[in-house]
Amino acid sequence: MNVRLLARCVFSPSLRMGGARIVALVRSVCRTLTRWQRLAYERRLLASLSDGQLHDIGISRAEALNEAGRPFWDDKA
Questions:
Q1: Could you tell me the residue ranges of all domains in the chain?
Q2: What are φ and ψ of residue 5, in 5° steps?
Q3: What angle in degrees, to the nearest 10, is found between the helix axes of 19-48 and 61-68?
Q4: pLDDT tens readout for residues 46-62
Q5: pLDDT of 77
Q6: Per-residue buried b or exposed e for 37-64, using 16+ beta carbons within 10 Å of the residue's own CB
Q7: Helical (H) or strand (E) element with 28
Q8: pTM of structure
Q9: For a Cys staple, 68 with which of 14, 43, 44, 59, CB 3.0–4.6 Å?
């Protein structure tokens, strides 16, 4: 999300957002950013596993590369 757009949404007087709603919005954005960062990290780790390690967890190299190639915001959870 564009930071300027977020700032306009949060601080726009026409929206009349209370302090609690602003805090909830900021927390939600932080949770989403943290989740995306974690997904990117996990996908990089998955791509770095050896064939033996992938076999141990029951996935093929093609499946690992397919998952690792997904963008960080592509979250099916």
A1: 3-68
A2: -65, -45
A3: 150
A4: 999 999 999 999 999 99
A5: 58
A6: eebeeebeebeebeeeebeeeeeeeeeb
A7: helix 19-48
A8: 0.67
A9: 43
Token look-up 């943290």 returns 34
Under 8 Å between Cβ of 14 and 39: no
Residues with Cβ within 8 Å of 66's Cβ and at least 6 positions away in sequence, in order, are none
Q: How far is residue 37's CA from residue 47's CA, in Å, rounded to a whole number?
A: 16
User: For residue 14, which amino acid is it?
Assistant: S
Residue of 65, 38, 35 whose CA lies nearest to 49: 65
9 with 15: CB under 8 angstroms?
yes
How far apart are alpha carbons 66 and 6 in whole angstroms? 32
